[in-house]
Sequence to fold (294 residues):
Amino acid sequence: MQFQQLQYFVAVAETRHFTRAADLVHVAQPSLSQQIKALERELGADLFLRARGNITLTDAGEALLPLARRILADADTARHEVQELAQLRSGRVRLGATPSLCTGLLPDVLRAFHDRYPGIRLLIEEGGSHDLVRELARGALDLALVVLPLPTPSPALTTVELLREDLVVVSSPDAPRPGQGRRAVRVADLEGERLVMFRHGYDLRELTVAACRAEGFEPDFAVEGGEMDAVLGFVRAGLGVAVVPRMVAARSGRGLRVTPLARPGLNRTIALAHRSDVAPPRAARELQRMLLER
Fold:
């Protein structure tokens, strides 16, 4: 099995077309087809069902695809690691983070990292913890900032606790203060409040809904389904209140009233994760150090 054959296989699997795949990997279509057939002979199984105008994966192809993607991703990481120049003058870091962390934690850290290593490209992927864990496992990310506990814990990942962050309630300054004007709002005070709620799969949604149910009530949603920027915009417009991380509220506070939650309050644990079987590239290790020392 050759590395080039895996490249060609993944290209066909993603385009479902031999000619477009050949263009994608810059090779003549007959050569690509010959390499795919050679790979199938070596494996002893067809990888594609070939019908006129319709290319689909066989069961063998479906089994090979995630493995091939991971091999190619690891090889790409190795190439970048070897090509990095001394003193981190070049290279890249592929970092995943939840949208709230991209808004609250990362701007200052990434600015400091960029000032120190301007030649390092920063590739940021926003997503929920579940999606980021999957991308880490298949080698598409070097590091990820995730919320603990992970939805599906995996021994293939190493996590290091980074910080514990309090959540606060944000509302429009023109709306009545939540919790009947108290300086600190209890979770129970959110009963009867109209909430602006994040989309399904968002860590903050699950945490907030669980806290309300623990107090014996179902939250009342004024609007739901947004990402962080949308939720903050809806709150500014007076559509309702939202529970957000303190760092996000501090950075996005213009046009918002911020009210802390009374003890014990709500908080979340942020961790830095990477694959256990492969050390992060040199540039990623330096960003990891800066995040842990912040």
Observations:
- The first strand starts at residue 48 and ends at 51.
- The CA atoms of residues 199 and 225 lie 4 Å apart.
- The chain has a mean pLDDT of 90.
